[in-house]
Amino acid sequence: MQLKKVSFPNECRKQALNNTFLILLLLFSTPFILLAQLKNEVDIPVNVHITPTANFNLVGADLKFSFVKGQGAEQIITPSTIGKMWINYSSVVEWNSTNSICISISSGNLPVEIILKLKVGPEAGFGVGKTGKSVGEIILNNYPQAIITEIGTCYTGQGLNRGHPLTFSWEFHPDQDSDILSIEEMNIQVGVTYTIINND
Predict the structure, then answer these.
(1) CA triple 121-149-111, angle to 5 deg
(2) d(C-alpha 18, C-alpha 32), whole Å
């Protein structure tokens, strides 16, 4: 029996090569397709917006407060107010923005011969975030003055030895005769109000 050589037309050979290439492509790409299906993850960008807010509280052994209609609570200060108080605060601000805490005399009559000072110490070091900077010592009057500035998003913690220490002191004006009467005998009482303002 004699075998005959069979030749395929060019079109058949091209089709056979295309089919072979397709089979090889499927064999090599199948693992990558399966891995992509097994991953089953989608990356979605998420933007979180927190509304700016701020609050504070005072802590100490000798605190007295009074509620003034339309103004809120004010702290009552007398010459017998002694010891350190602490101001705690928390703050959330917009990007590149800061808050300040201010104080002013809101009630009472401070005699002209008397100076009421407030010394604000640096933050105690237990805070988290961008805590504020103390302005040091100021002389109080009826206009709000900043006592802590550059407060960012932060939290000082709650209670004694957290936040900034506050110390009030009473003095006679240098040109006044302090021998006539002591400050404690003058029965002075003033109310002070704290406010938080945004610096934008």
Answers:
(1) 65
(2) 22
Q: What per-residue string of b and e applies to 56-83 under the rule 16 or more CB within 10 Å gives b?
A: beebbeeeeeeeeeeeeebbebbbebee
DSSP state of 198: E
Do residues 102 and 144 lie in contact, with contact meaning Cβ atoms separated by under 8 Å? yes
CB 191 within 8 A of CB 105: yes
Place of tokens 């005072």: 58
CA distances to 29, 121, 156, 165 from 162, rounded to whole Å, are 62, 11, 6, 8
φ, ψ at 49 (rounded to 5°): -115, 125
Q: Residue 153 to residues 92, 119, 185: CA-CA distances in angstroms?
A: 4, 24, 44
Return d(Cα 149, Cα 138) in angstroms, integer: 14
The domain spans of the chain are: 53-198
Q: What is the pTM of this model?
A: 0.73
Dihedral-angle region of residue 44 (phi above 0 means left; psi in -120 to 50 means alpha; beta otherwise) = beta
pLDDT in tens for each of the 200 residues of the chain?
454 444 445 555 555 445 554 454 444 555 545 445 555 676 777 666 667 888 999 998 778 888 776 667 899 998 887 677 999 999 999 988 999 999 999 999 888 888 999 999 999 999 999 999 999 999 999 999 999 999 999 999 999 999 999 999 998 887 766 666 677 777 889 999 999 999 87
